[in-house]
Amino acid sequence: MYVTKLGSNDVLLGRGTGPSMNEGNINFRMAVEEMKPAYVSTPSRKAKKEIIRRTIKAIKAKNGRFLCKLSRSEIKGLGLPYKVAYEVVPDSIAIEKTKQAIRYIHYKKEPKQGLSGSSSFQTKTSKLEAAEFPKKTPASLRESEAKSSMDPQ
Q1: Do 88 and 67 contact (CB within 8 A), yes or no?
Q2: Terminal CA-to-CA distance of the chain, rounded, Å?
Q3: Each residue of 97-151: pLDDT tens digit?
């Protein structure tokens, strides 16, 4: 199915300012933010799939569609009399789009204030890694190798 007019809840696939500033994509990101705590807190893959499906269903319940922009050559090849057209993608692609949005939100960079007041960026996971995993230097690696070679197994 092809679409030439976007609705306020349509989610555009793709990168850049076009899709990211689209009203439907903004609503989609807010929906993903809301479901993130439930998604991240469950270890069950089956439950995670259900959370993703519910999110997609909620978008569709508001007359939202997941759309992929057609190239000019695709539009011309289809014989469509429009300059811009979109194709409604299958649910499998909408599921992948939603999974990617969760990963992006989960690992996105947050500003971190330094001692001098300047801000730099650090990912959420690097904060965790810094706390749980000490930095390994060549010297510390040699020490751990030496200890492991001395331990009888």
Answers
A1: yes
A2: 64
A3: 998 888 887 776 555 555 555 544 444 444 444 444 444 445 544 555 555 445 5
Q: ∠76-79-83 over CA atoms, to 5°?
A: 50
- Pick from 32, 24, 149: which is nearest to 95 by CA? 32
* Contacts within 8 Å (CB) and 24+ apart, 54-61: 55/31, 55/98, 56/91, 56/94, 56/95, 56/98, 58/31, 59/9, 59/11, 59/24, 59/27, 59/28, 59/31
The half-sphere exposure of 68 on its side-chain side, counting CA atoms within 13 A, is 12
DSSP per position, 69-108: EPPHHHHHHHT-S-SS-EEEPPHHHHHHHHHHHHHHHHH-
Report how many helices (DSSP H) and strands (DSSP E) the chain contains, helices first: 7, 6
In angstroms, what CA-CA distances link 105 with 17, 30, 35, 100?
17, 10, 11, 9
Give the model confidence (pLDDT) of 34-89 as tens digits. 998 898 888 899 999 999 999 999 999 999 999 998 888 888 888 888 888 889 99
**pTM, full prediction:** 0.65
